[in-house]
Amino acid sequence: MSISFILHMILHVTVPLAVAWLAYRDQFRKAFFTMLAGIAIDVDHLLVTPILHPDRCSVGFHLLHGYWFCAIYLVLALYKKTRLLGLGLVIHILLDAIECFRQQFLEDFLRSF
Ligand SMILES: [Zn+2]
Questions:
Q1: Which of 20, 53, 61, 93 has a 20 to 30 Å separation from 10 between CA atoms?
Q2: 40 CA distance to ligand 1 centroid (A)?
Q3: Interval between CA 113 and ligand 1 midpoint (Å)
Q4: What is this structure's pTM?
């Protein structure tokens, strides 16, 4: 397990924590744990082999990381009743997308030598 993968997993916890602290301090616990629940979409990793592959881009590959689901997560974030869950899911997808970009960028960068 690489350091960048561990950092990625830590961000899945700390970013919702920071957003809850900054934007929902009055209901911090509810906001944090609801947004943290967004990590549950990683259950779709169980549908493929290998379950965990640090160099694989999740966005667009795994079922619940599909583009149609991303659109649904965005819509959930727009409505007050589902906003926290939607935000958690959008944060999750954004972090996964940043990881995909980092993987691709690093690969291209290393290939340039
Ligand atoms: Zn994910």
A1: 61
A2: 8
A3: 31
A4: 0.89
Residues in the chain: 113
Which of 2, 9, 112, 21 is closest to 58 using CA atoms?
9
Ligand 1 center from residue 9 Cα (angstroms): 9
Question: How many other CB atoms are there within 10 angstroms of residue 80's CB atom?
Answer: 6
Distance 96 CA to ligand 1 centre (A): 6
Provide the residue-wise pLDDT of the chain in tens; the chain has 113 residues.
Answer: 788 889 999 999 999 999 999 999 999 999 999 999 999 999 999 999 998 887 789 999 999 999 999 999 999 999 999 999 999 999 999 999 999 998 888 777 777 77
Angle at 25 between CA 22 and CA 28, to 5 degrees: 110
| 28 CA to centre of ligand 1 in angstroms | 23
The single-letter DSSP state of residue 6 is H
